[in-house]
Amino acid sequence: MNIIALIAAAADNNALGKDNDLLWHLPDDFKRFKSLTSGHTIVMGRKTYESFPKPLPNRKHVIITRDKNYTVDYDVCVVVHSLEEALELVKDEDLSFIIGGGEIYKLAMEHANKIELTRVHGIFEDADTFFPEIPESQWELASEQYHPADEKHKYAFTYRTYLKI
User: Fold this and answer.
1) To the nearest 10°, the Cα dihedral for 99, 103, 106, 108?
2) Would the pTM of this model clear 0.85, i.e. be above it?
3) pLDDT 10s digits, 24-41
4) What positions does the domain DHFR occupy (predicted)?
5) I want to staple 95 with a disulfide (CB 3.0 to 4.6 A). Which of 3, 59, 83, 88 is the partner?
């Protein structure tokens, strides 16, 4: 089975980021992201890709951009010009991840069959990018695990896994 999973960290008001950066620093969430996505293809928009200093190790990167002249000088990166093109590239993979940003999540929601969401407990009014609402009629919460705030994590958060009904 081909699993297309959205993976994101979003605040209680669905805020994802501002100025192409995250609004929080959650080391345990980074570790979970790395553990879940390593060895798989990650699909993202150009701005999300450009927020990384370099490609993430042990992952194939599919970058979606409208810019027909956009190129990337890394073997692990493929540039495509639509979500449909990206989905065609991963159709034979057991598991691939959509990692953002906001517009890509919105477009991919109907194609995904799993969501790995880290719900960051806070409201971030100044965000400029948001995760789409998860329609409860189409998704069921399969598991959740709470992580309290601590010395390394300014905000409490909950890992939530949703499966398409």
Assistant:
1) -50
2) yes
3) 999 999 999 999 999 999
4) 3-164
5) 3
What letter represents residue 14's amino acid?
Answer: N
Q: Which residue has the tokens 């879940």?
A: 36
Report all structural domains of the chain as residue ranges with CATH numbers, in order of start: 3-112+122-154 (3.40.430.10)
∠ CA 130-72-36, rounded to 5°: 50
C-alpha distances in angstroms, 72 versus 52, 62, 100?
A: 13, 11, 18
Residue 67's closest CA among 79, 77, 55, 75? 79
Question: What residue ranges in 60-164 does DSSP mark as E strands?
Answer: 60-64, 77-80, 95-98, 114-120, 129-130, 139-147, 157-164
pLDDT at 1 over 90: no
Return mean pLDDT, the chain.
97
| Per-residue pLDDT tens digits for 117-147 | 999 999 999 999 999 999 999 999 999 999 9
